[in-house]
Amino acid sequence: MPYLTHRPARPFFFIFIAAAASASPTTARAYDWNFNIFDDPGSYRLMVSPFTGHFRPSPEHKPVYALGLERQRDDGRIAGAAYFRNSFGQPSAYVYVGHHYDGVLGIPQWNAQWSAGLLYGYVGKYKNKVPLNVNGFSPGAVLSTGWQLSQRTSAELHMLGDAAVMLQLSYRLP
Length: 174
Fold this sequence. Notes:
Blueprint: H1 10-23, E1 43-54, E2 65-72, E3 77-85, E4 91-102, E5 110-120, E6 137-148, E7 153-160, E8 164-172
């Protein structure tokens, strides 16, 4: 069944939008795409994803593991890359930009994030599992929500379209 025929996970999307809007006053004005990710003190986050749960499991699905590095500016803008094994065992990558919001709904430990970028890796008989796939390349977008466990560590849930949710653990590098 092609990816585009699945039902979207709408409730999560609307909860994410409401939570992110409450987290930062910058969401009320137009997003400024003209920025240098390195012109702000910021920090780096090392990320690992040990588990992914599919909404509609299939015998074709294999465990999904990911490793990534993300640059996060102090104003919340992010850029990063992740290497992962997709649901069908194929080596894949995601390169992205986006925004991170701390203090969702006034709760300091709760955060939300969105990212959009380029996805690579769904090839061969699985090329139709992601939309707009051209020779393994397709657009990607991820909505996330998480909890700050300590000053440097956090746990997040990433909504992978309408296909799955991924658990991610991250560590902010000094």
